[in-house]
Amino acid sequence: MSSMINNATARFTHKAALGTLPRNMISLGDFSAEQIAGLVESAAEIKHKVKHENQAFHPEQPLKGKTIALLFSKRSTRTRVASESSIAYLGGHAMFLGKDDIQLGVNESLRDSAQVISSMVDGIFARVGAHSEITEMARYSSVPVVNALCDQNHPTQILADLLTIWEVFGKRKPQAQSIFDVLGGLRVAWVGDANNIIYEMLAAMPKCGMHMSVCTPEKYPIPQQVKQQAKADAERANVSVTYHTNPLEAVEGADIVVTDTWVSMGQESEKAQRLRDFAGYQVSMDMARQGKANKDWIFMHCLPRKPEEVTDEVFYSDRSVVFQEAENRKWTILATFNALFSTKN
Q: Which one of the listed residues 150, 208, 215, 302 is annotated catalytic?
């Protein structure tokens, strides 16, 4: 699919909101709908310039002379490739610091590491374990911190999801005047685990005017705090958020069906039990048909994917936008770095 939304929906109307962003990106729950839209619009604009105007480097080189620390305590494919290539495009230097490269969590506290590392770099992109780790890092860092993943949030992934949805559904609404004209009223169905991806979706999508149907097994409920915030955002945007344990109920009327791994990193010992608990949750054409998803529904998954989560028939079908979604990790991370780490700040 083309990286440019189309002539109508490529009207970037929320750029002004980029001037009011929070210092750190821990969760999109801390951002307004307009700020989220501004980041997604910026990502789309950069993507078009790179892919259709052959712009190999940002003409202003906003990270020239800057070093961005990439602290990854968990392995990664998309996040690492996207972040390093984004920093190169912006003219900066990426310093990858894996769990075996530094003293973090071994001989030095997170607080001390945050203070030391931030004194030598211009921004931190951190992929950690517990939510408390990213918040503590942000608290003691002297430079902006962007959450590359923690056990509660994954903001740059959901920005990529929103860009993908805008690209796909923008083509179906050529008269749309803004990103909200495209996203507004769409129904997202989540069928899977109660994890950081769905928590972050609930933090961002209702406030952007999207309905959500969330389906998790009874043993894996969405935390009450997450539900309360999603409810408040949904009420302000006049949309619905519903919770289910039956996947067929969740996918009814869905425009977008989303799932993720049932066994996240660190849960390998639970795999056998989790596979039993998620029986019947595999996304399939039959599930969408029986549940009466909208006829033009699409499938999304943040990857890596395992066959028990979604059939090959769906994953490799024309309905699947998973590889477009994966590529968009780069463009939304790039837009985030440009907004939070650049020399204009």
A: 302
Q: How far is CA 3 from CA 127, 293, 325, 326, in A?
A: 27, 26, 11, 13
Class of domain 157-326: alpha beta
For residue range 96-130, list pLDDT tens digits in order: 998 888 766 667 888 999 999 999 999 999 999 99
Closest CA to 199 of 245, 163, 233: 233
The pLDDT of residue 104: 66
Domains 15-153+329-341 and 157-326 share a fold: yes
Tokens of 204: 């961002």
55: left (phi over 0), alpha (psi -120 to 50) or beta: beta
Active site residue 302: yes
Residue 98, beta-bridge partner list: 72
Distance CA 78, CA 334 (A): 13
Residue 7: its pLDDT value, please?
A: 42
- Which fold is adopted by the domain 15-153+329-341? Rossmann fold (3.40.50)
pLDDT tens digits, residue range 222-246?
999 999 999 999 999 999 999 999 9
Q: Which of 340, 300, 305, 304 is nearest to 86 (CA)?
A: 340
Structural domain boundaries in the chain: 15-153+329-341, 157-326
How far apart are alpha carbons 30 and 145 in whole angstroms? 13
